[in-house]
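Thread: Newbie trying to understand structure tokens

Hi all, I'm a second-year student working on a class project, and my supervisor (Dr. K.) asked me to get a predicted structure for one chain before our next meeting. I've only ever worked with sequences, so writing a 3D structure as a token string is new to me. If someone could post the tokens and maybe explain what I'm looking at, I'd be very grateful. Here's the chain:
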Amino acid sequence: MHSHTTAHPDPGAARGAVAIITNRRGELLLHLRDDLPGIIAWPGHWSLLGGGCDPGEDPASAIVRELDEEAALAARDLTELFEIRDDRGSGQIITFFAGTWDGDETTLPLAEGIKLQFFASEHLDILTIPPFIRDGIHRYLAARSS
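---
Reply by user tm_fold:
Sure, no problem. This is what the structure looks like when written as tokens:
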């Protein structure tokens, strides 16, 4: 479960963006990905909403677009956190963002994946989550609690 933060990412490397969305109770919004092995990275895993950057698109623009496309979600206070490379999956350099949203996740029009669900941080250990996403969530939670 080794991932690293990239201090000076390769400008030619594939990039993506994900968002750690929390509600007023501090729960994290996770996305159950479609179970399509060989078609998508991390099939059947719980992950964060997000996706790849389009050509010429920066991660901040990509995450706003992805949240809208995947779930018609407009998070408040979207802030860039850090980057981690998905070494065991797509190979992309992923920029993590954090934001808040207090709605009912079951009412969001999910365009990709199986479902969205808020989880308390103490329940994350029982979920199947890609290693780089788990690392990013743990890093976010550690910084939040300090």
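A couple of things are worth pointing out once you decode it. The helical segments are 59-71, 131-145. Strands lie at 15-22, 28-32, 46-47, 49-52, 76-85, 93-100, 115-119. Feel free to ask follow-ups in this thread.
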